[in-house]
Amino acid sequence: MAIRAAWLSFIGRRTQGEIAEILGVSAAKVHRLIAQAQRDGLIKFFVEARPADCIELENTLVDLLGLQHCFIAPDLSYKGQRDPFGAVASFAGQFIHGLLANGSAACIGVGMGRTLSATVAAMPKMQRPDLAIVSIAGSLTRRLSANPYDVVQPLQAATGGEGFYLPVPYLAETIEEKETFHGQRSVQDLIARAEGADLFVVGIGSVSADGHLLQRKLVTREEADELASSRACVDLMGRFYDREGDMVSVSLNEKAVGLHPEKTRGSRVIAVVGGPGKAEATLGAVRTGVISDLIIDEALARELLSLAQTKELAEVAK
């Protein structure tokens, strides 16, 4: 009944009074049914257009950062309360759904992270049983438990495609352990499959001494301190770069097990980024030259523009 009420409301554009009459229930009951459908994730909202100032900002960032495409989800904050993932996940979900629905991609390589998880949750379901979905950055933590932000299984459920998990941790404990993983035929085959993907969708992680890497127990305190004392500002597919897009000299770069970002260069690589404190990390990731498309929220886009322009002025001053 909740599903029928949702159809009548959002597709049929009936009022709650009309729906109550059709279903033979009270208007209050209709309100509760629609709220239930929303809570259960049965209703997904998409807006076909973006505000003109967002589009103007997109064009500015494309020119300034050398991107092929940039898409900005409008700011939804209210009285200082910012939804870091809702708008960007809604747009990215719709956008990636469109790319997959046209059948042009037979294999998609996916990273991990909170923003990507929210993106997949926002995608409408489709039937693409021919689609291969490949993890490019490891599906496990160092404790060999499932990575909570791995998106292969949710994307498989949303598309009906076939998922391929890279059965290794995001970062190995030691270089020797990494070499052991890479020596396994199954890992070699999966990395080769990932290299051949038609499309890549990745997240961008920021770097701090007490950031997400440490909170999710992907690195040790000593490794986090090493990152903090380096120029590293961004985690891209398990490799660490500075604001200029150059890989930094830290031990963790020798312990990443998944696909190297360089293997995606020249392909369509879509980075989906949301949340505060990501401007420097986003600039560093874009400066690597690997990312072709950027999907971000408006607040982050304005922070990124300010940071990029400051950097450009500093270079001119030199």
Automatic annotation (TrEMBL):
One of its GO terms (molecular function) is carbohydrate binding. The keyword Nucleotide-binding does not apply. Pfam families: Sugar-bind. Keywords: DNA-binding, Transcription, Transcription regulation. It comes from the Bacteria. Residues 51-306 form the Sugar-binding domain. InterPro entries: NagB/RpiA_transferase-like, SorC_transcr_regulators, Sugar-bd_dom_put, WH-like_DNA-bd_sf, WH_DNA-bd_sf. Belongs to the SorC transcriptional regulatory family. This is Transcriptional regulator. It comes from Pseudovibrio exalbescens. The lineage of its organism: Bacteria, Pseudomonadati, Pseudomonadota, Alphaproteobacteria, Hyphomicrobiales.
